[in-house]
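WARN no homologs supplied; continuing
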Amino acid sequence: MALARDERDTVAGAGGEGSGAMGDELRVGPASDLPPGRIVGVGDYAVGNASGNLFAVGRRCRHLRADLAGGSIDDDGCLVCPWHGAKYDVGTGRMVRGPQGVFAKVPGLDGAYKLLTRVLPLRRGAVEERDGTLYVR
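OK structure emitted
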């Protein structure tokens, strides 16, 4: 069974009746459909696989609220925003590099966003695999 996606690569199916999910879990889909380097959207989370490290973080960038499920994973295992290249540590939810491009030229902006995410990091969820299916809590 493949991951169900809408036009924004969003995974469908929050844990509901008949989903096999327990409590406040969201069903991601088969573990085999989330290979290293892939990110999908599940509810309010961007769920990804950074070289075997499964993660779930809040889906909206702290800069201009871009959908991080459309981002990428860099060589350091960080989640990179698809709009302006802000970079997040998926373990802590903190921004480790501020927005790039024209925004990188604004004095103090990088530091301000890094400081903001020390206080308000991206929300993090726990990813579990059960019987070959991934869930986020």
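The chain has one domain: 10-131.
OK
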